[in-house]
């Protein structure tokens, strides 16, 4: 009996990540999940959960722990992100911009994913195809910015896009079969988007299950790039 394909899901406590884990398990994957707290509703002999904080030291430690298990991952998903907190909301006007809010959003959306990416050399295996998916957002596109607003969130995702593409250029020199994808999931029903979707009849508000299914469908189609792709939930390229 062959070994199951292996997936690593980072930031696994989010609504989309939880649905992604369920979909991966249903497809026969063994899943390693990482988050601050495990999802209580998920249980499987093929699911291993690691709890960690998102400090430099904690991320380095957990990556070393996972690397020591000598797992060849077929897929790595980095799902960390923040749209708002009770104190921080997307700015509608420039006079709402503040250093405190900006740094909070930048830390969650740019710094934390990049800390994980900085340890990818420990988690990738030469000669093994690995699809690395980092959750981004369409509003991180400079070319697609026609509405303005959301200063901190836009900037944090634009910075993430640049850093991931730069990382992909470097890492693909060593791991030629690695594929990097920045993924825009669309507006999804979750605590993250709840203040912006309550009472909405907009049919483009997706369930986490739909987004997980779409993402895995895109990956099954085998999108290829020399460096890094920036795709929406339909698998269509987004303007950088």
From TrEMBL:
Recorded GO CC terms: cytoplasm
Native source organism of the sequence: Thalassotalea agarivorans (Thalassomonas agarivorans)
Superkingdom of this protein's organism: Bacteria
UniProt name for this protein: NAD(P)-dependent dehydrogenase, short-chain alcohol dehydrogenase family
Pfam families cross-referenced by the UniProt entry: adh_short (PF00106)
MF-aspect GO terms: oxidoreductase activity
């Amino acid at each position: 009996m062959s070994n199951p394909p292996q997936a690593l899901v980072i930031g696994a406590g989010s609504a989309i990540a939880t649905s992604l884990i369920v979909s991966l398990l249903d497809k026969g994957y063994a899943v390693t999940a990482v988050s601050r707290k495990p999802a209580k509703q998920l249980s499987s002999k093929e699911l291993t959960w690691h709890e960690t904080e998102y400090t430099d030291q904690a991320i380095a430690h957990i990556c070393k722990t996972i690397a020591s298990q000598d797992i060849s991952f077929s897929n790595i998903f980095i799902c960390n992100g923040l749209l708002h907190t009770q104190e921080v909301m997307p700015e509608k006007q420039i006079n709402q911009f503040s250093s405190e809010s900006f740094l909070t959003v930048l830390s969650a959306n740019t710094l934390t994913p990049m800390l994980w990416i900085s340890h990818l050399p420990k988690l990738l295996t030469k000669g093994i195809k690995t699809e690395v998916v980092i959750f981004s957002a369409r509003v991180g596109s400079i070319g697609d910015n026609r509405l303005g607003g959301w200063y901190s969130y836009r900037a944090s995702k634009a910075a993430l896009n640049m850093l991931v593409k730069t990382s992909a250029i470097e890492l693909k020199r060593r791991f030629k079969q690695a594929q990097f994808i920045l993924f825009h999931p669309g507006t999804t029903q979750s605590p993250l988007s709840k203040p912006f979707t309550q009472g909405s009849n907009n049919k483009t508000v997706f369930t986490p299950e739909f987004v997980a299914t779409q993402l895995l469908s895109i990956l099954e189609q085998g999108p290829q790039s020399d460096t890094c792709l920036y795709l929406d939930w339909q698998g269509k390229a987004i303007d950088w």
